[in-house]
Amino acid sequence: MPRTAAILLAAGSGHRMNGTVEDKILAPLGGRPLFVHSATAFAESGVADFYVIVYRDQKQMLELSAYAPTPALFVPGGEERQDSVAAALAALPPDIGKVFIHDCARPFVRVDQLIALHKIVLREDAVVLAHRVTDSIKEHRADGHLKSLNRDKLWAMETPQVFARDLIDAAYAKVAKKKLHITDDAAAVELLKHPVAILENSHANPKLTTPADLPWFEYLLSQSQS
């Protein structure tokens, strides 16, 4: 029976934190490192049989190892996010059939969402967690004109994103062959013209990006625990 793996991305540079924390993935949130919130949700959900933790440097790896779910393999990250994902995919054991990919800078992923995503990927081979766009979005064209986009069809991508292993392997191989830059894994699968299911997220699942996010994250955590 093929197993399911979870790739937990923790190697981001965090340069937009402007030095307010030494490592945003290990920044304290509710008295625990940010990484622990994602790792705990995955462990409690039971969706993964194997973990690949993508780390930035040896110091970070040693700290992450104290909190990582098991069994886990640690893989050094690359220059860009897509390089880190490609390295993690290459390190997976051959019996892995499905793969979760999650940015650990998003600590609010929920156990019930992980279970739902796992059920969907068994049917669809590709599914992403996402939320509907509520702002008015416009395209600014080269001639200076604006074009309104239909927000009813627009979704903001989140993680986890989950795929059949052969599908995401083929997608990343195509990214490498075409020397493309992508910012999420679904963009790689789009190149294969494969459909991607969406699990709508009605809960806040932001990504820690700037120092101003930290007090907001503390507030969100307090609300989720009340």
UniProtKB/TrEMBL annotation:
Spans traversing the lipid bilayer: none
InterPro entries named among the record's database cross-references: IspD/TarI, IspD/TarI_cytidylyltransf_bact, Nucleotide-diphossugar_trans
Database matches in CDD domains: CDP-ME_synthetase (cd02516)
Gene Ontology molecular functions: 2-C-methyl-D-erythritol 4-phosphate cytidylyltransferase activity
Key words of the record: Nucleotidyltransferase, Transferase
Record PANTHER family: 2-C-METHYL-D-ERYTHRITOL 4-PHOSPHATE CYTIDYLYLTRANSFERASE, CHLOROPLASTIC (PTHR32125:SF4)
Protein name: 2-C-methyl-D-erythritol 4-phosphate cytidylyltransferase
Source organism of the structure: Rariglobus hedericola
